[in-house]
């Protein structure tokens, strides 16, 4: 997935480090084999290259992630869209961007690729885990797969009997239990390039999405990898980042993407209606402005 992972854990039974590391790596390898667009032989790459009308039976993990992405696509009106692959490449990101994809696309190119995007085109039967290629669809699950990888690896660690750990994959984290000293795990939530909030995390996951990472610049224009599937364009509002707390990291990851695309006002309204614990960081003339949903302090308090 083009990133790293780390684990801190209490090990009272003195389990071998290799056994613990292999458990995490094995879970991540399963996600990569199914959902990495960087791997030409992955399940997602095979679907993206398949002919119109071809039917694919997905592995259970792939099906779970796609179902979650489609659920939030429906709820948000397309603020997250698993078929966003053509736009990701067009704007210079992902496995298929190419070295030349460092300039904004022409209106004609954008319109052409945008026609291939649309979660409503995907014919997915969750009961049979069957997905039909409608023709030209290119899946990209970057906005949710890392969070799922954290959850899958967490389940593996718990199956080993570990109860107290903090797992991180590419900046998405999930905490179980407490530190060896009895205190909750603590994580840093960036609010700007120079400041951060230090907050406790216990039996909870946290994910952040924003425009400070993975950016492109051309002739004075700067854009990030956060794309709005509804318009085909990178987001351009005042929102710098969104952090979401949830019991499942897959949900936190997906929701951070949804709220970042929706923006500060629409995103906050969405979070309030659905009781999502979210912290919005907006750019302001006097520095970053922090806006928390009603559920943010409740869950933050319960994790302390």
Summarize the SSE layout with pairings.
Layout: E1 5-9, H1 17-35, H2 43-48, E2 55-57, H3 60-76, H4 85-90, H5 107-114, E3 123-125, E4 130-132, H6 145-159, E5 165-169, E6 172-176, E7 185-190, E8 196-201, E9 204-210, E10 215-218, E11 221-224, E12 239-246, H7 249-262, H8 264-273, E13 277-282, E14 289-292, H9 295-302
Antiparallel strand pairs: 1-5, 2-4, 3-4, 5-6, 6-9, 7-8, 9-12, 10-11, 12-13, 13-14
What does this structure look like?
The model has no long low-confidence stretch (mean pLDDT 89). Helix content is 34%, strand content 23%. Strands 1-5-6-9-12-13-14 form a seven-stranded antiparallel beta sheet. It has a three-stranded antiparallel beta sheet with strand order 2-4-3, with no helix packed on it. It is built from nine helices and 14 strands. A hairpin with a 2-residue loop joins strand 5 and strand 6. The protein has a domain at 171-302: T-fold (Roll), CATH 3.10.520. Helix 7 (249-262) packs across helix 8 (264-273). By secondary structure, it is an alpha+beta fold.
List segments where confidence is low: pLDDT < 50 over at least 5 consecutive residues: none
Major β-sheet profile = 7 strands, antiparallel
Q: What's the CATH architecture of the domain at 171-302? A: Roll
Count helical runs: 9
Count of individual beta strands: 14
Radius of gyration: 19 Å
């Amino acid at each position: 997935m083009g990133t790293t992972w780390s684990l801190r854990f209490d090990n009272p039974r003195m389990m071998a480090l290799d056994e613990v590391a292999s458990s995490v790596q094995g879970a991540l390898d399963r996600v990569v084999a199914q959902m990495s667009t960087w791997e030409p032989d992955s399940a997602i790459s095979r679907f993206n290259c398949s002919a119109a009308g071809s039917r694919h039976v997905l592995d259970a993990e792939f099906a779970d992630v796609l179902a979650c992405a489609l659920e939030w696509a429906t709820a948000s009106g397309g603020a997250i869209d698993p078929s966003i692959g053509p736009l990701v490449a067009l704007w210079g990101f992902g496995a298929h961007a190419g070295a030349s994809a460092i300039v904004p696309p022409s209106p004609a190119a954008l319109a052409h690729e945008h026609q291939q995007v649309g979660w409503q085109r995907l014919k997915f039967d969750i009961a049979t885990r069957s997905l039909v290629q409608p023709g030209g669809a290119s899946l990209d699950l970057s906005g949710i797969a890392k969070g799922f990888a954290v959850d899958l690896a967490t389940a593996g660690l718990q199956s080993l009997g570990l109860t107290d750990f903090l797992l991180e994959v590419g900046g998405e984290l999930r905490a179980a239990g407490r530190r060896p000293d009895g205190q909750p795990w603590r994580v840093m939530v960036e609010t700007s390039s120079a400041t951060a909030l230090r907050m406790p995390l216990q039996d909870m996951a946290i994910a952040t999405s924003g425009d400070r990472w993975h950016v492109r610049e051309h002739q004075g224009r700067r854009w990030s990898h956060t794309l709005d599937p509804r318009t085909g364009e990178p987001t351009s509002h005042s929102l710098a980042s969104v952090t979401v707390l949830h019991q499942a990291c897959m949900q936190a990851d997906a929701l951070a993407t949804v709220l970042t695309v929706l923006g500060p006002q629409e995103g906050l309204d969405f979070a309030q209606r659905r009781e999502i614990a979210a912290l919005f960081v907006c750019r302001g003339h006097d520095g970053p402005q922090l806006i928390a949903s009603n559920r943010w302090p409740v869950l933050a308090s319960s994790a302390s």
